[in-house]
Design brief:
The structure is a homodimer. Chain A is an all-alpha fold. Helices cover about 70% and strands about 0% of the residues of chain A. Chain A is globular.
Chain lengths: ~180, ~180
Amino acid sequence: MTTPPTETLLEAVSFAARAHRHQIRKDRETPYAAHPFRVCLVLQRVFGIDDPATLTAALLHDTIEDTPTDFDDVAERFGETVAGWVAALTKDMRLRDDLREPAYFAALAAADGPVHLVKLADLYDNLCDSSHLPSATRQRSLRRAREFVEFFRPHVKPEAAAAFALTEERLARAASEI
Amino acid sequence: MTTPPTETLLEAVSFAARAHRHQIRKDRETPYAAHPFRVCLVLQRVFGIDDPATLTAALLHDTIEDTPTDFDDVAERFGETVAGWVAALTKDMRLRDDLREPAYFAALAAADGPVHLVKLADLYDNLCDSSHLPSATRQRSLRRAREFVEFFRPHVKPEAAAAFALTEERLARAASEI
């Protein structure tokens, strides 16, 4: 019997929790795994996304970039499509920062719709989460969010257009709260 | 501005991750917080429950029993209703085990529908999760799940009847896989 999609999603929760188990968020007390769980909830409840593969990619979106997990680890358990989406959400850490960001943005712009949805949910959650951080950190994170939104605007895939609008609204709210 | 329900739910993810940060699951490697998040996903995706308060209680359901969190910590951040549901899902650790279980079962039977939904999702997730455990552990966990289902049957609140049927089906599948 093949595993039902929801049970694969449950396994992705545990996989992400194990991969990130030694990391914490910027508040220095919340386990990092809370973030991919929250991104999965933003996709479901704010953006209205129900596709299990997209939700799985959300749960795994930082595993290749931030943990010893590689493409094959993800592909073996969750398939090549999900692994490819996670890879597109992963910066090339071999590059110098000033080259890494443009390369990352260019790859994102060209990526599939589900990658755009996860990236926007990631940004959305960071906007919700930053309200607890010191003002200087919030200002910096808002500035980067705004730059990203402006860059991304002409590239957003149609299936992510509504999510883009919701993220822009959330950005405006975060800016008004500073 | 009051916090939108989804953002309260995101905060409950982080709250649960912090509360359980030093605990792991029975496989001895998965951070415990994966479990409440999975229970939240079971409620949404298997039982079709969308109520943010019920989902919040799912995220917090083990915090009072297993961590230093108390009723007031939950009530202060998430309200008295959610705190009351979490309390109903909490065993009285002051009692001897043979008195504790009947007291817990009796309180559950008398509890609100959302408590029944979370308890069934908890059981459902444990059934999914136990497939990785050694056979003796699985057998014991299946026996306890069966006892609980038989006890619970005459007490299930109408709003949890469909979830009860789905949990019974999942139990039968787990039994067939041993």
